[in-house]
C-alpha cells in the first residue's frame, strides 16, 4: 500500500513555490493514500543553529498544512523532533551512506559555497541522510516535493538499497523483508524504493525577479517571491513588478522556450488554475503581459487569500495547533517504533 511522506522546513516564510511544488500536492494525495506530513525542525538547525522564533515557525507550517486542506485526523501532521526514531534511523543511515554521496549534493554545494569546513555543521552535510530516515522510518513509498529535492530522493534510494544489500542475510533471518525487483535485480528488501512525485506545471517555481533562480525563502529581495501570508496588495504589486520580456504570450508551449520569466508565470497560472500550460496558452496566447498579469493577480489572490486568512485564524489559537501536532506526534511515534524495532533486530542491537 502506498505511503505518502513529505516534509517542510520551519525556516522563513512559506512562499508560492512551497505551495505549488509541495503543499498543494499534499492536499490532492490525501484522497487515495495514507499520508504523513512533517514539519522538519531537526533539519531547520542544520544551516543555522539558533532560531529566535522556532516554535512559531513550526506552528505556522502546521497551520499552512491545515489551512490548505490537509485533514490531520485522517492523516498525520506532526513535527519531526517529537519522534526521536527519525534521528535514530538517521544515525544508522550515517553509517550506511558514504561521505562522498553527501558531498556531491548540489544543495550542499550551494549552501556551502564560499564557506570552509570549519564554518559548516556536520548536520548540514548529513542532511540527506536524515531526510532518507524521515521517509523510511515509515517505510514511505511516495514523496511529493518540488524539483529541487529530486537529488536528495535519489540519495534516499541509494541509502535504502545499500542497507538492503549490506544487511541482506540479516533481513532473510527475519520475516520483515519482501522480494522486490530493482531494475532486473531481485533483492530481498527491508526498505522500499521511494518514488518522487514531482509532476505538474510548476515543479520549480522561479524567482519573480530572475527566471534563472528558484523562488526561495532566503532570497534577499521580497519582490522575488509571493509569500503565502501576503495580502492582495502585496501579491498585486509583486506580480505587476515581475520581470518579463516585451513580447506577447505564445499560443503554444514550445514558444516559451528561452523565455524563462514568461514560462514561469504561465506555469504558476496553470498550477493555480489546475490546468496545463497548454490550456493557459490557448486562453492567453497572443495577449500582452498587461492583460495576463492582472488575470494572474486575480487568480493568485482568489486561491491564496482563503489560505492565509485561515492560517491567521489558526495562529491565533496555538492550543488548537499544538493539539494537532501532539496527537500527530503520538501516532507517528507508534508507527516509527514498529519499524525501528525491526531495524534494531536486523542491525543486531540487543534490546
Ligand atoms: P523546503 O522546506 O526547502 O521546501 C518545502 C517543499 O517546497 C518545495 N519547494 C519548491 N517547489 C517548487 N518551486 C520552488 N521554488 C520551491 N521551493 C521549495 C521543496 O521541493 C519541498 O518539497 N529537504 C526538504 C524538507 C524535507 C523533506 C523530507 C521532504 C525533509 N525531510 C522528507 C520530503 C521528504 C526541504 O528543505 O524542503
Automatic annotation (TrEMBL):
L-tryptophan binds at residue 134. Gene3D superfamilies: HUPs, Tyrosyl-Transfer RNA Synthetase. A motif ('HIGH' region) lies at residues 10-18. It is found in: Cytoplasm. It is an enzyme of class 6 (ligase). It holds the Pfam family tRNA-synt_1b. InterPro entries: aa-tRNA-synth_I_CS, aa-tRNA-synth_Ic, Rossmann-like_a/b/a_fold, Trp-tRNA-ligase, Trp-tRNA-ligase_bac-type, Trp-tRNA_synthetase. ATP binds at residues 9-11, 17-18, 146-148, 205, 214-218. Keywords: Aminoacyl-tRNA synthetase, ATP-binding, Cytoplasm, Ligase, Nucleotide-binding, Protein biosynthesis. GO terms for molecular function: tryptophan-tRNA ligase activity. CDD domains: TrpRS_core. It catalyses: tRNA(Trp) + L-tryptophan + ATP = L-tryptophyl-tRNA(Trp) + AMP + diphosphate + H(+). It comes from the Bacteria. Transmembrane segments: none annotated. A motif ('KMSKS' region) lies at residues 214-218. Its EC number is 6.1.1.2. HAMAP family: Trp_tRNA_synth_B (MF_00140_B). PANTHER family: TRYPTOPHAN--TRNA LIGASE, MITOCHONDRIAL. Belongs to the class-I aminoacyl-tRNA synthetase family. Homodimer. Catalyzes the attachment of tryptophan to tRNA(Trp). This is Tryptophan--tRNA ligase. It comes from Rhizobium herbae.
Amino acid at each position: 500500500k502506498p505511503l505518502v511522506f513529505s516534509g517542510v522546513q520551519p525556516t522563513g516564510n512559506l512562499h508560492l513555490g512551497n505551495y505549488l511544488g509541495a503543499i498543494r500536492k499534499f492536499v490532492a494525495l490525501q484522497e487515495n493514500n495514507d499520508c504523513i506530513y512533517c514539519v522538519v525542525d531537526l533539519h531547520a538547525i542544520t544551516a543555522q543553529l539558533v532560531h529566535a522564533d522556532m516554535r512559531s515557525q513550526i506552528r505556522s507550517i502546521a497551520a499552512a498544512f491545515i489551512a490548505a486542506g490537509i485533514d490531520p485526523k485522517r492523516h498525520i501532521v506532526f513535527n519531526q523532533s517529537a519522534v526521536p526514531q527519525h534521528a535514530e534511523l538517521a544515525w544508522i543511515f550515517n553509517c550506511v551512506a558514504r561521505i562522498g554521496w553527501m558531498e556531491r549534493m548540489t544543495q550542499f554545494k550551494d549552501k556551502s559555497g564560499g564557506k570552509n569546513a570549519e564554518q559548516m555543521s556536520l548536520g548540514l552535510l548529513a542532511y540527506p541522510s536524515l531526510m532518507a530516515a524521515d521517509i523510511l522510518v515509515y517505510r514511505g513509498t511516495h514523496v511529493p516535493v518540488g524539483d529541487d529535492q529530486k537529488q536528495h530522493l535519489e540519495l534516499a534510494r541509494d541509502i535504502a538499497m545499500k542497507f538492503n544489500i549490506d544487511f541482506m542475510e540479516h533481513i532473510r533471518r527475519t520475516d520483515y523483508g519482501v522480494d522486490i525487483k530493482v531494475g532486473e535485480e531481485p533483492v530481498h528488501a527491508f526498505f522500499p524504493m521511494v518514488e518522487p512525485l514531482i509532476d505538474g506545471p510548476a515543479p520549480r517555481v522561479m524567482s519573480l525577479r530572475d527566471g534563472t533562480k528558484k523562488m526561495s525563502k532566503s532570497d534577499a529581495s521580497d519582490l522575488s517571491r509571493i509569500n503565502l501570508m501576503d495580502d492582495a496588495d502585496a501579491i498585486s504589486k509583486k506580480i505587476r513588478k515581475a520581470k518579463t520580456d516585451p513580447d506577447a504570450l505564445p499560443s503554444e508551449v514550445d514558444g516559451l522556450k528561452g523565455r524563462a520569466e514568461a514560462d514561469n508565470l504561465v506555469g504558476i497560472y496553470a498550477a493555480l488554475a489546475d490546468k496545463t500550460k497548454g490550456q493557459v496558452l490557448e486562453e492567453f496566447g497572443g495577449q500582452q503581459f498587461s492583460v495576463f498579469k492582472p488575470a494572474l493577480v486575480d487568480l493568485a489572490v482568489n486561491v491564496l487569500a482563503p489560505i492565509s486568512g485561515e492560517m491567521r485564524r489558526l495562529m491565533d489559537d496555538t492550543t488548537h495547533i499544538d493539539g494537532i501536532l501532539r496527537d500527530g506526534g503520538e501516532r507517528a511515534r507508534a508507527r516509527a517504533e514498529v519499524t525501528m524495532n525491526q531495524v534494531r533486530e536486523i542491525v543486531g542491537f540487543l534490546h
